Amino acid sequence: xxxxxxxxxxxxxxxxxxxxxxxxxxxxxxxxxxxxxxxxxxxxxxxxxxxxxxxxxxxxxxxxxxxxxxxxxxxxxxxxxxxxxxxxxxxxxxxxxxxxxxxxxxxxxxxxxxxxxxxxxxxxxxxxxxxxxxxxxxxxxxxxxxxxxxxxxxxxxxxxxxxxxxxxxxxxxxxxxxxxxxxxxxxxxxxxxxxxxxxxxxxxxxxxxxxxxxxxxx
Length: 218
Description:
Elements: E1 2-4, H1 10-22, E2 29-33, E3 39-42, H2 53-59, E4 63-65, E5 73-75, E6 79-87, H3 96-112, E7 122-124, E8 128-131, E9 134-143, E10 147-155, H4 160-166, H5 182-185, H6 194-215
Parallel strand pairs: 1-2, 3-4
Antiparallel strand pairs: 2-6, 3-5, 6-10, 7-8, 8-9, 9-10
Helix pairs in contact: 3-6
């Protein structure tokens, strides 16, 4: 099942993934969304120090906390989001690591097909998609006994200076970041057309669904 559902209310966008997790269905669910306004989302265990609270307050940018892991992100125009919900008992999704490797590997391959031959998409850290050692996609999971989701961001037309304004340097960083500032560490995916990225995600989702059918029940 594919859902293209975006809400104007930031809380609704964040809460909807958990609503989907509560649905009594076994089939895969795929969601694509983009917020029309800026807001900051903290991971389940993100420290308050990762957020520039003064700038967020002065500019009226809401700060929310989601129930999945991962770090702090800025949502808004130019940041496409996806969610993949699957059964936890699928062999390739039985652990956090294998789920990231399997799902993000398929997504990375689909996105790479939209790029020139001299560019490639890599999975770095535990759950970052990167081009040339610079991150354009962060991902997180929330798991229950029978179901789980992976959700992530794709920066494609985001003003990186806004990320620097609202997010401090995180306390925890992947080794490959090497202390780089946001402007040197982050990048927009070099295909600025969200429809092309959406088509690549839809193709990836079909691959994931096919894998679920052949390697486990859905």
